[in-house]
Automatic annotation (TrEMBL):
<feature type="domain" description="UBC core">
    <location>
        <begin position="12"/>
        <end position="164"/>
    </location>
</feature>
<protein>
    <recommendedName>
        <fullName>UBC core domain-containing protein</fullName>
    </recommendedName>
</protein>
<dbReference type="InterPro" id="IPR016135">
    <property type="entry name" value="UBQ-conjugating_enzyme/RWD"/>
</dbReference>
<dbReference type="InterPro" id="IPR000608">
    <property type="entry name" value="UBC"/>
</dbReference>
<dbReference type="Pfam" id="PF00179">
    <property type="entry name" value="UQ_con"/>
</dbReference>
Amino acid sequence: MSSLQKYRSQTMKDYGLMIEYKHLRQHVPSGIYVLPSFDHSRIWYGAIFIHAGLYRNGIFKFTIFLPESYNGPGTYPRIVFNTKIFHPYVYEDTKELDLKPKFPEWDPELHYMVAVLTYLKGIFYMKDFPDLATVANGVALDMFRHDPENYVNKVEECVDESLTNVYNNEQGSTIRFTKHNPAHDNLRQELFAQLDATPVSDYPTIAPEHVRGRLIH
């Protein structure tokens, strides 16, 4: 492939990424925010608010990495959480979400980031797990099935850690949390009304300049 052909191929992939993000803005699951990096179009920053289930009240931030070959067959996106997530589908050492339980093979004609984020949200509400040959965190799966009390304790530790670190904004992140500012009250009321969430005082503020393009419906 010539340099010109490679350039055209990459340009088409970048254009496809823009189209996919536009679609994502219209269909992102409730409670999830995603904004691209200002500096790297293939790095997106996200946060998910959990309002029910074992992970209730958690605010889990994550980063989406889209390889240069993304939109090609077999090229998965990568989602890495910022804080520990004790879950059978999350690798304990890297904090990366395993996509293969939902997407055994990645087909760009069928699979999009909307489906990935729907899966991401769903893992926090799972009440059982199918029998798979391997999972990202086998210890978590075994504890879920045979020692549920300790599993709940581990999950609560993750929720607490997410809240403790919520104001630790990652360098370069387009989603930033700030402590309460009365000037943000109207925005907060609007935000939590749309999320059908718990009282406004229970959660931190997301700085308005980073919510202007928020992805909620």
